[in-house]
Amino acid sequence: MTEPVETHLKDYKRPDFNVETVELHADIFETETFVTASLGVKKSPEAADGASFLLDGRELELLSIELDGRTLTDGEYTLEGEVLTLQAPPDVFCLTTKVKIHPETNTSLEGLYLADGTFLTQCEAEGFRRITFFPDRPDVMSSYRCTVSADKEKYPVLLANGNLVDEGELPGGRHFATWEDPHKKPSYLFAMVAGDLACREDTFTTASGREVALKFHVDHQDADKCGHAIESLKKSMAWDEQTFGLEYDLDIYMVVATHSFNAGAMENKGLNVFNSKYVLAKPETATDTDFQGIEGVIGHEYFHNWTGNRVTLCNWFQLSLKEGLTVFRDQEFSSDMGSRAVKRIADVRGLRASQFPEDAGPMAHPIRPESYIEMNNFYTATVYNKGAEVIRMIHTFLGPEGFRKGMDLYVARHDGSAVACEDFVAAMEDASGVDLSRFRLWYSQAGTPTVTVTRAFDAETSRYTLTFTQKVPDTPGQANKKAMQIPVRMGLLGGNGAPIPLTLEGEASPGPLERVLSLSSALESFTFTGVEKEPVPSLFRGFSAPVNQVTDLTEAELIFLLAHDQDSFNRWDAAQQLYANTILGMVADLEKGEPLALSTDLVAAVQKTLTHPTLDKALIAQALTLPSETELGDRMAEIDVDGIHAAREFVADTLAVALKEGWRSVYEACKEDGPYCPDTQSMAKRRLKGLCLSYLSRVESPAFVMDAFASAANMTDELAALTVLAGMDAPESDEAMDRFYGAWKGDTLVLDKWFTAQSLSNRPGTLERVATLMDHPDFDIKNPNKVRALIGAFCQANPWHFHRLDGKGYDLLADTVIALNTINPSIAARMASGFNRWKRYDEKRQGLMKARLERIKGTENLANGVFEIVSKALA
Ligand code: 0A1
Ligand code: ZN
C-alpha cells in the first residue's frame, strides 16, 4: 500500500487556471448517471508559461474529453490516479468532459448519492470531484448552470443552486430542469437533488422589501414537521439584518431534508441540504433539545450565506474562517432568541466535553491546521467550537461596536472572494484600531492553555493582588509555545456578595464593577486598591477564554460564588468545580479504602439552589447536573473508570436521599398543563422536572417513573422518563422500551432516541444489548444517524460499559470501524477517534485499546482518513 500523502499549508499556491463558467448536465438513470461538464477556463496572468491545468476526479469513468470542440487524444492529456492533467493548454479555452458515475451504489454519502429514493449531493470538502473532473479547491470560483434530468414519475422534483430558468419534458417519461446561480461559488457549494418530495412553502420579506420564497422539501410523511424550521429560518434572516446588516441575496431559499447525511447540514448556495434531525419536529416526536438544535443549525447554515459563501476560503486550512465565525454567529443568534446564560453553559459543556480532550490528544491541532491527510478529519470541535471561542475573544477585546465595524469592513473588502483567517483578523484590527498581533497566536498554537491564579490580600494597605501564570501545553509537532493574549472578564465579591469597585493601582477610584484584564505574558499580576476586606474573586466570567482555570478556591468560597455571583455562568461553573473536587476527592478515598461522606455544606448549597425562589429554572437544572463521567475523567492524570463511576453514583444517591422532599416538591411544581410550547420558560420547567425525575428514580419505585413515562404528553417528558427507565434494572425498563418501540416504529428519528437511551444505560448487560441492537431490523450501519445513536453514544458517553475490562467494548468499536471503512470512510474515521484517549487509561486498558488500534491499522484497503486517525493515535 502506498502511504497516504499529507497536504501542507506552507505549500499553498493560488491556482494557475480559473474556471469562470460551468455548464453541467446530469442525466440520472437507475443504474448509472452521465455527467457532462463544459468548463470555461482562463489562465491566470500570474501563471508561468507552459503551466498545466490539473483537475481532480474520483471514481469517475471518463467517456470523452474535448477542448474547444475537438476530441483530445490519449497523448494530449494524462489521467493518473485521481488527477487529470492538460499540459500547457491555451490561455482561454472550453473543456468538455463526459463521465459515468454510480450514485446508486455510493454509500460514502459524498458526491452524488441515492438515499431513501432521493438523489442528492454533498460536495464539501472534496465531493465535487466524485461528480465530474474539476479543479476541486475552494479558491476556484465559477458561475454555474446545471441541468438535471431523471424519470418524471419517480423523481418529480429536480433542484440545483440558484434560480429555475427552464424545465420540460423529455422522451421516455423523463423530464429536466435547468438552474442558474447568479453568484460565483467554489465547487464545494454546488448541490443538486432529484426526488419525490413534499414542499412546504413560506415567504420572507427582506429589509429592503424583496420577497424571498422559502421552500422546504421533505418526505411526504414528514410534511407536518417543518413549521419550527421555517419559523427558525425567518428569525435567522431577520436577525442577520438587524445584527450585522446582512440581507439575503437570492429570490429563493431551499432546504432539502434527508435521513442519510454524514454531518448536521450543508450550506450549499440557495439549496441547503439538511440531516432530517435538524429540520423535522413536532411536540410529540421532538424534544426541547431537538427544537433548539433545529433553530441553531437552521441559523448556522443561513448565516453561512455571508460568512462562507459570499466571502469564502482560499484553502481548507482556513476552514475556521467560515466555521468558527459562523458558529459564533449561530451562538449569538440562539442566545438572543432564548436564554443567554443557559446557551453559554450548554456551549461550554460541549467545548469541555469534546474540544478540550481533542486538544489534549493525538489529533491536537490549531484552529488553522498546518497539514492534513484527509480534510474530512478536520471538521473538528477545535476548528468549529474553539474557532468560535477565538472569535468571541476578539468580540470581547473590541466590544460589540468595534466587532460590528470589523465585520462590515471584512464583508466590504472581501465580498466575492476566497480569503484567509488573516484577512479576517486584519479587518477587525483595521476597523477597530485594536492591536491583535499577539492574539494571532490563537490561530497557530494548539493545546488548551492552563491559567493558574494565586491571590494575595494586604489588609494594611487595602491592596488585593491577583497573579496569573499561563502555560500552553506541548502538542504533537508543537513544543515550547509562546504566551497567548487571554481576556479575563472578572469581578470581586465582598462579604455580602456585593461587587467591589475594581480600581487598578494608579487609576482613579472607584473603578468599574466588572472589567476585562488582558494577559499577554507567562506571568502577570494585577493589584486592586481600596479593597477593605478579602474578597472572593470571580474570574473568566462567561468563560471569557477557552482555558483551564486553576485556582485554590475553597469549598466555602465556591459555595459563596454559587449563591452570590452576579455572573450566572460563573455560578454554574462554581457548582461544577464543587462537584468535581468532591467526586475526585472521593475517587482518592476509594483508592485508599476510606469510607465516603458528602459534606453537609454541599448538600445545603444544593438544597438552597434547588429551592431558590427567583433563579431561572433552567439555570437551577444546570447547576444541579453533575459533571459527566467523561468530563471527570478528563480532570485525572490517569482515568479511573470504576472509581469515577462509583464516586459519582454515591454523590447522586446521597443527594437523592438527602433532598428527597425537595426533588419531589419541585417535580410537582414544574408539572404543566396546557399544550406543549417550545418557549424558554416552559423548556426550563421541563428540564428541571426531568432532572428531578432522575434524582427521584434513585429513591422512588420503578412504578413511579413508569407513571411519568405513561403520562408524558410530549417527547421531552417521554424521553426524560424513558432514559431514566433505561438505566433501571427492573422489568419496567424492558416494558417501557417495548412500548416506546411499538408506538414509534414508523419514525426513524424517534427510533434513534430509543437506540441511544439503551446504549447509555447503566444496567448490567448494556454492551450485549447494544451488540444485539446492531442486528435489529431498524438499525442500519449505512445510516450515520443510526451509527451515532447506538454505537457513537455508547463509546463516547457510556465510559463505564465501553471500557469494560474484558475488552468487548473495544472490540465492538474496532469491528464497527472496520465495517464502516469500506461503507463510509468519513464516519469510520470519526468513530475510530473513539480510541484517541487510550494513553490516559491504566496499563491493562491501554494494552487492550492499542491492540484494537493496531488491528484497524492492519486492515486491507484502509481509507486515508482512518489511517490518519489511527496512525496518529499510535504515534
Ligand atoms: N459546512 C457544513 C458542515 C459539513 C461538512 C462536511 C460535510 O460532509 C462531509 C457536510 C457538512 C456546516 O458547517 O454546516
Ligand atoms: Zn458551518
From TrEMBL:
Listed PANTHER family: PUROMYCIN-SENSITIVE AMINOPEPTIDASE
Annotated ranges, domain Peptidase M1 membrane alanine aminopeptidase: 229-439
Family stated for the protein in its record: Belongs to the peptidase M1 family.
Natural source organism: Desulfoluna butyratoxydans
Boundaries of every Aminopeptidase N-like N-terminal domain copy: 28-189
Alphabetical UniProt keywords: Aminopeptidase, Hydrolase, Metal-binding, Metalloprotease, Protease, Zinc
Reactions that this protein is recorded to catalyse: Release of an N-terminal amino acid, Xaa-|-Yaa- from a peptide, amide or arylamide. Xaa is preferably Ala, but may be most amino acids including Pro (slow action). When a terminal hydrophobic residue is followed by a prolyl residue, the two may be released as an intact Xaa-Pro dipeptide
Job of this protein: Aminopeptidase N is involved in the degradation of intracellular peptides generated by protein breakdown during normal growth as well as in response to nutrient starvation.
GO molecular function: alanyl aminopeptidase activity; metallopeptidase activity; zinc ion binding
Pfam families membership: DUF3458, DUF3458_C, Peptidase_M1, Peptidase_M1_N
InterPro entries: Aminopeptidase_N-like_N, Aminopeptidase_N-like_N_sf, PepN_Ig-like_sf, Peptidase_M1, Peptidase_M1_dom, Peptidase_M1_pepN, Peptidase_M1_pepN_C, Peptidase_M1_pepN_C_sf
EC category name: hydrolase
Biological process annotations from GO: proteolysis
Family annotation (CDD domains): M1_APN (cd09600)
Domain Peptidase M1 alanyl aminopeptidase C-terminal: 556-875
Ranges where the Peptidase M1 alanyl aminopeptidase Ig-like fold domain occurs: 447-548
Record keyword Protease present: yes
Keyword Metal-binding annotated: yes
Cofactor(s), names only, from the UniProt record: Zn(2+)
Highest taxon of source: Bacteria
Identification of the protein by name: Aminopeptidase N
Enzyme Commission number(s) from the entry: 3.4.11.2
